[in-house]
Fold this protein.
Amino acid sequence: MRMYKVFLYMGMTILGFATSGFALAVNDGAKIFEDACSECHHPKKKPLDDTHLSREKWQEAYDLMVEKDKLDAPLSKAQLEELLNWLVSTHGPASTPATGVPPDAGKN
Ligand code: HEC
């Protein structure tokens, strides 16, 4: 009986590690954006679909969101990296439609 409890405990510990590892693995940028940003930024409200920024500008925007206390909790460094990678690949300057006008022209 005692042994059983020990194994149960060990099992739960291992499961705990396994799930936290898993959570890390699925924490890709899209998911992080959904968790951290889409509460306020989604297609019907403050959409960011047409926002195309460089990595630096996304970083600045993120900092602004933190500064303005918009996020429930700041992201970890690794999460922020993932988010920025995702934002730049989907909403970076390179994915800008060729209108001839850089979308952040006029800003700053
Ligand atoms: C609680 C609501 C909220 C959350 C969560 C939030 N934002 Fe914002 N965001 C805003 C508001 C409000 C503004 C407009 C701020 C202003 O102009 O003062 C804004 C502005 C922005 C802008 C500038 C938009 C533009 O048109 O220039 C960017 C970029 C942005 N947010 C990115 C993000 C990202 C990335 C996240 C997630 C890490 C995020 N936001 C999370 C509310 C939020």
Remarks:
- The pocket of heme C is lined by residues 36-37, 39-41, 46, 48, 51, 61-62, 65, 70-71 (CB under 6 Å).
- Residues 14 and 100 are 54 Å apart (CA to CA).
- The chain has a mean pLDDT of 80.
